[in-house]
Amino acid sequence: MKTKIHWGIIGLGKIAHKFAQDLRQVPDAKLHAVASTDRERANAFAEQYHAQYAFGSYEAILNCPHLDVVYVATPHVLHHSVVMMCLRRRIPVLCEKPLAMNTKEVRKMIDTARQNYTFFMEAMWSQFVPAFRKTLELIQAGAIGRPLSIKADFCSKFTYNLESRAFNKELGGGALLDIGIYPVMLSLAVFGKPKTVQALATFGESGVDYSCATNFQYENGAIFMGHSSMMHNSRIEASIYGDKGVLHLPSRFHHPKTILWEKEDGSVETINMPFDGHGYQFEAAHVTHCLKTNELESPIMSHQFSLDLIGLLDAVRAEIGLVYPNHD
Length: 328
Ligand SMILES: NC(=O)c1ccc[n+]([C@@H]2O[C@H](COP(=O)([O-])OP(=O)(O)OC[C@H]3O[C@@H](n4cnc5c(N)ncnc54)[C@H](OP(=O)(O)O)[C@@H]3O)[C@@H](O)[C@H]2O)c1
What we know:
This protein is an alpha/beta fold. The chain has 2 domains: 5-125 and 280-297, NAD(P)-binding Rossmann-like Domain (Rossmann fold); 130-274 and 310-320, Dihydrodipicolinate Reductase, domain 2. It has 8 helices and 14 strands. The strands form 2 sheets. An 8-stranded mixed sheet has the order 8-9-10-7-11-12-13-14, covered by helices on one side. Strands 3-2-1-4-5-6 form a 6-stranded parallel sheet, with helices on both faces. It is globular. The mean pLDDT is 97. NADP nicotinamide-adenine-dinucleotide phosphate binds next to α1 and α3.
């Protein structure tokens, strides 16, 4: 078994820096290579994080020696093409969320990974953050009885720049795909697939949803209420209500360090699960482990979960009438 898994990063923007910082915490992983559309940015990034190789194009990293896996951190609209390029060369991939722009693209990526016997996972990092995992375990164990509803918000006032990734439709902009995905992911992790999807959105001048509210209803009567906006802040909290208690995930619920467990008798137990860094080390450690043990798919963040998640985002987009012309 290899002692260290050699990571590459494609697309050297904001999240790539945070990931590279957290990767330092994973003992059996090292940053080996980086690829950017800009050679100088690649060189500077490689120097900053001590990567051996720097490439001035995404294609070039495909020929990098001793590369075990790449982390794709480009805007969403490029995920499909960049990931396909890697998977066809049998290079394992961890790709940022949303995995692609729609189900059609995600299905092709998963099919290609399977045909090439190559590991592929969506970087839905929350699923690996200890307090988030503990929350799901508590629900499974009946800590709040029967879960009946979820409220979750993710609103963040973004700098208003129509050219930026968040607002630009050509780059896959919009609140739902960027941050609304987290409340939706929580609903899927707790309740599974809903029977009814309702949504409302406010579109801005760039033609994408600046705010989006989602309501799902389930076969068993449970209800999910989610909210995302790029125009104002919110507390970024989630509460999962059951008939015997409540689990509160204080800010920021998608990478929590604390769980407030409100019990049937009204008492509240605080569960603290602190960690250093941003929280990306947990998904990186998981992928590193999967590769060392020759897994082709994560047992935690499965292909089916990614398909269900993008399916829900497609359903919400159909409700609000949000189309990405080069993809849909
Ligand atoms: N997991 C999380 O917590 C989290 C947080 C933020 C974002 N994300 C996801 O990560 C992805 C990247 O987000 P980010 O915030 O890092 O974005 P960003 O800062 O805008 O960086 C994206 C990078 O992609 C590359 N790129 C290639 N073509 C581009 C184009 N036409 N326009 C802009 N950039 C282009 C650029 O890097 P090079 O020129 O170096 O190739 C750019 O620096 C998104 O899919 C987003 O949903 C995840």
